[in-house]
Amino acid sequence: xxxxxxxxxxxxxxxxxxxxxxxxxxxxxxxxxxxxxxxxxxxxxxxxxxxxxxxxxxxxxxxxxxxxxxxxxxxxxxxxxxxxxxxxxxxxxxxxxxxxxxxxxxxxxxxxxxxxxxxxxxxxxxxxxxxxxxxxxxxxxxxxxxxxxxxxxxxxxxxxxxxxxxxxxxxxxxxxxxxxxxxxxxxxxxxxxxxxxxxxxxxxxxxxxxxxxxxxxxxxxxxxxxxxxxxxxxxxxxxxxxxxxxxxxxxxxxxxxxxxxxxxxxxxxxxxxxxxxxxxxxxxxxxxxxxxxxxxxxxxxxxxxxxx
Length: 308
Known about the structure:
Blueprint: H1 3-35, H2 42-60, H3 63-86, H4 94-116, E1 132-136, E2 139-142, H5 143-165, H6 167-184, H7 189-215, H8 221-236, H9 241-267, H10 272-297
């Protein structure tokens, strides 16, 4: 395979990973930006979306119907959790948020293990999502990964439109800037919080159901990606959808290219044995080095929210 073709395909893999991180980060940064709530359990909804969609696909026998039911189920679970468990915590400090949502992580992991077991589950793709597409001569890319990129970009564009061009988006932006004022103007802040939290959970669920056929489904899968999502938010800027998008693409591309090419690059400078040991370790550190570099130049992130 020509080197440039390999680089291009890995670059596309980075974009695919980046848009999935964006779906996670967008929901999390909306919740933090508007509600000032630290939700460590956000990764659990990534897992719930994957499991509910897998169950719905198996039950209905139709992939599209399963995706719709899985997203609707994740949305309802998120709204229920906000009403039952989280609503009373908004006035508390962030340590209480962390403790409560860490408890939700344990709860959801055990609940999923009880219902579906602890073994890794295969998430099959329908026939029409299999195969490859030819990008240019000699380069073929998995069709499913290309669909993930397109869906992620479409959702990002739709999210931008909702936040910047609709009444709901106006309320979201106003709530991020001054929620006391919008409450005084007669807006039902509790309902707004429930809708935003459920919407954020649905975005995480969408990322999870798209990740299922690529990475498989297992209990605790949300915690594996949540740390990278926090890195995205720190790089992009707290409360910023635009920052979440740019930060997610940067993290996805840097992480993917580092894991693909850092070890072979090191092997040209040091012994192959040392490169085999140092390469993966250094590759896993790249996104944190990127975060440190961004924070050194812009401590508030690349695109901090105007309300902060």
